[in-house]
């Protein structure tokens, strides 16, 4: 794993699948906010390239990299940004390392080619299924399902949509809301992990809206909530 300096007052964040669209955007934004980020990847070459690109954009060595297990074992906050088809196997690979940690799961159970149609898995929610699989020793928090990756990747772009944050552990949700506020996004408590079914489903609604109105990156904004997690 390449070394990156540890900011003493900040947590380390591991991003499994951090070479992908959402993962790169989150790595860039958290590293830019002063967090130490470790990209977890199945490919050390791909991870090295991604971390070098982000470090070059930021002008400092803020992002390191390793395998999924190396990354997950090194951070109190683990973020999962892999396709739905790889979600369970990626979590299984690191499951024994996750006790006591917060797992932020961004998964949307899209089933190509009909991604504009809600197709939730049996049981209702892809992320709730991971909480059930891991048990209560891991605090799973669902977030970012409705944030387009290309907006995260552009530091100059203010992402004005709300991030709905679901999880059974309120303190873990609060931690994640602060992490999201630290990268300049607005985040809201959206209830227990079961409610992730709604945020996962909403992504297909937004994809439909993008197609119908020929826009990229339609998002959601909740009205009449004056106090949001926002830096
Ligand atoms: N794209 C969006 O706008 C968006 C928005 C909100 C939520 N999401 C959700 O966020 C998650 C990540 O989306 P993404 O668009 O960032 O995905 P992506 O770019 O297609 O893939 C992300 C990473 O997943 C890893 N991966 C692990 N197993 C894989 C497999 N079997 N096949 C392909 N990749 C695999 C790869 O990293 P390594 O090869 O380095 O391991 C890959 O770079 C998804 O669950 C998606 O539904 C996406």
Write the layout of secondary structure elements.
Layout: E1 12-16, H1 21-32, E2 36-40, H2 44-58, E3 63-66, H3 68-72, E4 77-80, H4 84-94, E5 102-105, H5 126-134, E6 139-142, H6 149-152, E7 162-167, H7 170-182, E8 186-189, H8 196-213
Parallel strand pairs: 1-2, 1-4, 2-3, 4-5, 5-6, 7-8
Antiparallel strand pairs: 6-7
Helix pairs in contact: 1-2
Bound molecules: NADP nicotinamide-adenine-dinucleotide phosphate.
The site of NADP nicotinamide-adenine-dinucleotide phosphate has 27 residues, from helix 1, helix 2 and helix 4.
Question: Outline of this structure?
Answer:
With about 230 residues, the chain is α/β, with parallel strands linked by helices. It has helices at about 20-30, 45-60, 70, 85-95, 125-135, 150, 170-180, 195-215, and strands at about 10-15, 35-40, 65, 75-80, 100-105, 140, 160-165, 185-190. α1 (about 20-30) packs across α2 (about 45-60).
């Amino acid at each position: 794993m390449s070394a990156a300096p540890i900011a003493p007052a900040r947590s380390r964040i591991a991003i499994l699948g951090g070479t992908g669209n959402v993962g790169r955007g989150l790595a860039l934004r958290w590293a830019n906010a002063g967090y130490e980020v470790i990209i977890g990847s199945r490919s050390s070459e791909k991870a090295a390239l991604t971390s070098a690109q982000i470090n070059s954009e930021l002008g400092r060595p803020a992002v390191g990299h390793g395998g999924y297990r190396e990354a997950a074992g090194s951070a109190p906050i683990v973020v999962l940004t892999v396709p739905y088809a790889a979600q369970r196997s990626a979590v299984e690979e690191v499951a024994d390392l996750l006790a006591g940690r917060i797992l932020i799961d961004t998964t949307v159970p899209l089933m190509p080619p009909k991604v504009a149609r809600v197709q939730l898995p049996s049981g209702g929610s892809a992320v709730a299924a991971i909480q059930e699989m891991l048990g209560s020793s891991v605090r799973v928090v669902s977030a970012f399902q409705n944030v387009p990756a290309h907006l995260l990747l552009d530091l100059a772009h203010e992402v004005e949509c709300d991030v709905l944050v679901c999880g059974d552990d309120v303190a873990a949700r609060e931690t994640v809301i602060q992490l999201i506020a630290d990268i300049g996004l607005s985040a809201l408590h959206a209830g227990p992990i079961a409610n992730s079914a709604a945020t996962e489903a909403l992504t297909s609604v937004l994809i439909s809206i993008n197609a119908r109105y020929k826009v990229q990156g339609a998002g959601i904004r909740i009205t009449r909530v004056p106090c949001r997690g926002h830096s």
